[in-house]
Amino acid sequence: MATDQSPAARRARIDTSADQWQAVAWMAANVGREPLAVRRAVAGIEVAAFTDDDAALVLEAITRVCERPRATMAEIIAECRGLDARFCSARLASELDRYAAAEPRVLSDCLERVAEGHAQRLYLDALEDAQAGDLGPAARQMAMERLAKVAERAGPARNEDTDALTVADQWAQSPDEKLIPTGFQVLDQRFGGGLPTGITAISGMPGAGKSAFAGGLILGALEHDRELRAIWFRGEMSNSLLWSRFLATWSAIRYPAVPRITSKEARKRRPAAHKVNADLANVVGGRLHIVDPPLSAERIAAAIRRLRPGLVVIDYLQRCGAPGFPDKRSEIDHVLSVVSDITTRDDLATIIVSSMAGRHQSARGGADIGGMTKESNRLDYDCHNYFALWCDKRDRKSDPRPVRLEIVKARSGGEGELDLWFSGTDQTFTPQASEEQERLAADDFAGHALEPGR
Fold this sequence. Notes:
By secondary structure, the chain is α/β, with parallel strands linked by helices.
């Protein structure tokens, strides 16, 4: 092995303390959920690689706890305090929110960086020993052994690439793309039969019906698939107002099995609203969970981990947050990172409702990806599908009002525009007929009206 004789090489040390904390945070958060992954990680770790004393303490506690059946975070913290009564869990707690829902690859990446840092420290220590001079035979032999060990660890990097034949075989054996039919045919048809998994952003102007659109999709999906489980993360509306809107939407989906009602009738609890409420409760049952604010990355991850849904709605993004970040943009970006990891890991269909940036509110179509979402510039790029709802300010008091759904981005195709009618009273969207169809209908109506005896 060639040795660098420079003073910088002798002094330099890779600081991997952040990676050490990330690794123990992931293991602590997932010791009960991913016990095999944690045990494999612990078995492959050199304790000497952990130079942060507190992180090393947590690692030792995890090593003791992970073999227990149904190990918990509380057991790890208790073990840490048993090993050192002065242990403070604040640093561990601060890392948990960020890495609790991360994929296992985050753990492997962190441990790989820790191992690389450890190898470099061994190399630099051996180099310093070799250059110290006046080494006796025993010390010289020890230095050579340490250099040999570092050389072995610094060998060819692990090849994680896959060749084309492997990928072709995986493609042939993989199931078809997962789609969740929503019952909104004009949209389902655009995506080949239903909403695809991945993140779907719904952004729009005030009054364009962002939450109502998401509500129609989630209720339609639950009605279509009686095995589907879903979560609605509530950011701003009260439970009472949200449920009143759900009842109006449900009455439209299930009519004529239930009477048609408006959201106002639902709020006033008219007799027909009670019938719709009973039907919704009977059909949906415990398959729809509503998580109340405040919304944080940790609460979102915990609810998804506990309830195992197939469809998730976060309404709305600007109400989400995370502690320890300097500004709102950083908080939202962190929440997006966690939600993106969970969505990919669990193959979820995740709908994120978001406000549109002010400078785009006067636009009418022609939206560009980047900077569309208020207080975040990540959602536009991270989402798989991006829906923008446009409504002219002059039409906001109309009911129904014309709304244009612009599919700005679609992973599997389907971009374009859909002209819709949105009824705030009924909380429903219906496709507009084409201008030609409307003209023919008007001519037909006029012709019949002029016929004698009509």
